[in-house]
Structures
1.
Amino acid sequence: MAKQATKAKKSSGRSGGSSSSSNKSSNKSSASSATMTSEQNTMLEKFMIDSLKDIYWAEKHLTKALPKFEKAATSQELKQAFQDHLEVTEEQIARLEQIFEIMGKKAQAKKCEAMEGLSKEAETVIEETEKGSKTRDVALIISAQKVEHYEIAAYGGLAQLARTMGMNEVADLLGQTLEEEKETDQLLTQIAENDINLQAEEEGGEEETEE
Ligand code: FE
Ligand code: FE
Ligand code: FE
């Protein structure tokens, strides 16, 4: 009797799965079907999870980079924008953790090469511009917008993918973050246009020689 039971447990064949007459006597073999979906990841699900790990790393990295941007910025408005976005970023990290939980996965960060590169580039422009100059602010705004655009691409794509895969709650959460990144991008444009760009252009005249 014991031998028969082990054999039955291992058999994966779903004979008579479509029949409506489910007999209570076969309750031993029915346990596996409920957990099947969460354990079996399709190629696309794996990609989705890896992408979430990537953006999770990126956001965490930004919590270290944004204070550096803030410190390097000259104008108060830009400093404030970086400070505000740091708070938003922390909420976005919590939101990603919520997403991992919904998906039944451990929140794990996987190095995002792009974000590392973008923040390195930002550090370079800080080094190459003069402290206290509006030119440095212009450079910082563009660096920050490159970051936001990367995030917009990531969250936009993943939100849409989650929707396609029927994960509406995940899609909504990703969509919220997407909107925040877009707002930040627009705010940075506004700061540049009113009117750090102009101020930077004016300070550029210092080395002009007069006749
Ligand atoms: Fe973000
Ligand atoms: Fe990445
Ligand atoms: Fe952002």
2.
Amino acid sequence: MQFRPALAAMKPYTPGEQPPPGKFIKLNTNENPFPPPPAVVSAITAAASGPLNRYPDPMATSFRRAAADALGLPGPEWILAGNGSDEILTILVRGFVGEGQSLRLPYPSYILYRTLADIQGASWEQVPFIDNWQLPASFGESREDLRLVLLPNPNSPSGTIVPPQQVSELADSLDCPLVIDEAYVDFAEENCLELVKQNERVLVTRTLSKSYGLAGLRFGFLVAQPHVVAELTKIKDSYNCDMISIAAATAAMHSQDWLAEKVAVLNVTRQRLADELAEMGFDVVPSHANFVWCTHPSGQHKAIYEFLKRSQILVRYMEFPDWGDGLRISVGTDEQIDACLLMIRRFLDQL
Ligand code: PMP
């Protein structure tokens, strides 16, 4: 069988472990530990008795209206809905980066971008963060074949944020579009939506998987100037969001009070998690997301991950070649975090 040559050299993106529900305290893929807003559950029930024999609205208009409203955007034409923000990222890479061209990402960050470049037969350039997760000036340098720059903001795994003013300068210095992947931005104090209005080359992606508690549903979206949305609409799947997801995501956008309340609770727990890890001797990066990145002077990160897993607690052990390793721990409920901290303490006591 003849696959495209690009596939031979490709490494698939491997997401975090997803065991069957119930067995583990799951702190490994930055999901919301709380179930989604009640209005979402009602909307799903209502949609399930709707006309499922019919195709959904290809443009997810009800969702786009609700999202534009919630985010203070001029109208739905500033939004493109997708099957998770991963699909939106796929559309962006497909739309801007072809064979022989390249995209840029910071390192360590979201490795999926590399896979998306590989699929296109394109190349990728990783620019390492410097000085505690700052972007070096070279991240903003233009190059002939560079067609897209992607920046998770807040970044994963660090949870650090590049302030909008600096993002704006970065966008000005680049010739190509700059994607700000705001998957975790609801847990931060600032975002880059205003920049989208000022600069057609700033493209923001968002997801409902994290702050809205809807990872199981698959819904994400792009915020960009209307002519950019119109152009990218040409390459999306015809019916990329299903009727039930559209109804649920629309209800989620109408649940801004729920969102604010849950984010506030999780951010308090995040601070406690960070403080207690620091007390145990961990180096904890100050986080603006719903997870923390930490390293311990013992270097026993993999052993801690394995010990926790044996205790039915899943965190993410991450190893970045030429960089180092560490643990990324998602912010769960207070009880979940207490259980995790207790077992980490127990592990460290044995050393
Ligand atoms: N961007 C970043 C930085 C992420 O960590 C994730 C979650 N793995 C995503 C995008 C994708 O989120 P989703 O496809 O669930 O919307």
